[in-house]
């Protein structure tokens, strides 16, 4: 079983959740979301989690080039739109 906690907006949140042994930590990179984080914050979140947790970036209809940039930081991408590339 895997456990994912999503909607993280602060590195401190991610650090606490990661210390509990959560497998996947999700951050939303969709500007219309109230839990939106930018790429700079995503990097800070990544630096705050332990090596046993993976960072999932949730995107909605993001451009392919931007997805590539996000994957330089996040371990996984969760597509939550109508992507078809």
UniProtKB/TrEMBL annotation:
Database matches in InterPro entries:
Aldolase_TIM, PRAI_dom, RibuloseP-bd_barrel, TrpF_fam
Which pathway does the UniProt entry assign to this protein? Amino-acid biosynthesis; L-tryptophan biosynthesis; L-tryptophan from chorismate: step 3/5
Organism listed in the record: Sulfurihydrogenibium azorense
Enzyme group, top EC level? isomerase
Biological process (GO), any one: L-tryptophan biosynthetic process
Q: Mind listing the UniProt keywords for this protein, alphabetically?
A: Amino-acid biosynthesis, Aromatic amino acid biosynthesis, Isomerase, Tryptophan biosynthesis
Q: Name one GO molecular function term.
A: phosphoribosylanthranilate isomerase activity
- The N-(5'phosphoribosyl) anthranilate isomerase (PRAI) domain extends over 3-84
Q: Which reaction does it catalyse?
A: N-(5-phospho-beta-D-ribosyl)anthranilate = 1-(2-carboxyphenylamino)-1-deoxy-D-ribulose 5-phosphate
Q: Which Pfam families match?
A: PRAI (PF00697)
Q: What are its E.C. numbers?
A: 5.3.1.24
Keyword flag Cytoplasm: no
- Its name, as the record gives it, is N-(5'-phosphoribosyl)anthranilate isomerase
